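User: Continuing from earlier, I have the next pair ready.

Assistant: Great, send them over.

User: Here they are, in order.

Assistant: Folding the first of the pair now:
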Amino acid sequence: MLAIRLEKDLEQEIDLLAKSKGSNRSAVVREAIVRYLEDNEDLELARQALTETRSSKSLKALRKDLGLDG
């Protein structure tokens, strides 16, 4: 269980969103947290992939390695 304090304006926005979705405040906040965590995980994976794929090979050497230049 997690208890947080929110500004009244933010709480009202969450309530309006929950009402428009036919849901409740807890479900809206839970979904937002899950999406936030997933987005951060995706961002970290993208950063790792970028780091791993950076190469100092020239385009000519890369084309040769891939068999694109005969």
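And the other member of the pair:
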Amino acid sequence: MTKPILVVGAGPVGLTLASELARYGVPVRIVDKAATRTDKSKALVLWSRTLELLDRGGNSGAAPFVAAGFRAEAVNMVASDRVIGRVGMGEVRSPYPYGLMLPQSETERLLEERLSSAGVTVERCVELASFTVGEDGVEAVLRHADGQEEMTSAAWMVGCDGAHSAVRHGLGAPFVGETLNSDWMLADIHMRGYPFPDSEIAVYWHRDGVLIFFPISPGRYRVIADMPASGADHSPSPTLEEVQEVMDRRGPPDLVASDPIWLAGFRINGRKVASYRWGQVFLAGDAAHIHSPAGGQGMNTGMQDAFNLAWKLALVVRGTCGEHLLDSYSPERSRVGDEVLKATGRLTAVGTLHNPVAQAVRNTIGHAMLGLAAVRHTVADTMTEVSIGYPDSPLNGPQLHGGPAPGERVLPAAGQVPVGSSGAPRFALFAEPTAATADLLKRFDGLTGPEIRPAFRPGAIWLIRPDGYVACAAQDAATIAKYLEQLQHPAGQT
């Protein structure tokens, strides 16, 4: 019997990974030391690229998430009591051209339902006590709620257990970075007097700091603002009165906060591991990278770690590809993690400038730049994460001019059944139906298919990965076949 993959942590990242593995038919076990999933809103937004990847997972795809969420369609930048720029998401090339505002508690509920429909149940009140890593698997000790300890074997283990990851600590993986010397407040409240449509986010650059409003549903908002450093061991939670005072000082007039749902204080950490793979153990989500909440990228980045790793593990476990396929996970996702750290760090630094001259320069340049359509489009694509790609991936093969490059995302087609929506993950052929391309499907049955998609241009073949990124492109089927052979066997093996 194949040993299962052990997923440690049942937040959005662990639930995404486990549900993907389960739908691919891979034995999986998921444990979490908490008794229940979170009841807090926490991470609030699912961006376009994450929704696209959820769509590839069957079980109605992203539809249950979209039905439960609220669409945010634009971001307004305000400084000195005037709108200096507005970034709309309506022109993002995606079936989901918006940010889906959905409390993390709901995201976890829907992911757990998806996992349960695949026959897998989260084992709660189960903590990872210790583990040892061997050449062909992991031996882990799990501690149950009654104190009993269980020894279990796993083919691979994935740490999805957050910023204080027991898996990362057990590996001794350095978590390099810093904690910003400032306190932040977070308030999920009801509010009236908001000057923008409920479907739009607003960022206020004030001389005292930044104030951000995220709509959660009509009349309900998340408010975030930076505060002076308190010097306390932990950032203090604000009162509703303190939230109102900050809104009165930094925001538009006539805002009235009421009925708080969640009030919390936090500090911003920017930290990351150098490698996401340690032999038979992987790290994903906050266990591998944490950063500023600016842009709402954290949970989405972690969930996309899980999507990236799941199809690779599935092909290796099923014996379709060699284990060398897994070597691509860390370089691909670590590079994305680096970019997110830099981008969110810049956004935080820009929003929290306190020098009046620097603030004036920021406001002037921001107004000028956001007046350019090309800049607004770039900001929208970056924010919604459709611009994420793997241009330097070790999986990238040959390329052609006049079409998408290896590592580039392929736009999902409306109404198209996505590749890998059931059974094993598969690569897709975008080509003209010929004897040569039909032979590719037959020869690599189980790795490609199930049908040939329309070509990007005549006389050429594009091979698309199960996660919707270009693997390679060529004029002839022999080049594609060579690429697929190398996936199945490392170079030099047959």
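Worth noting for the second one:
The chain is about 30% helix and 30% strand. Residues 5-44+103-178+270-349 form a domain with the FAD/NAD(P)-binding domain fold (CATH 3.50.50.60).
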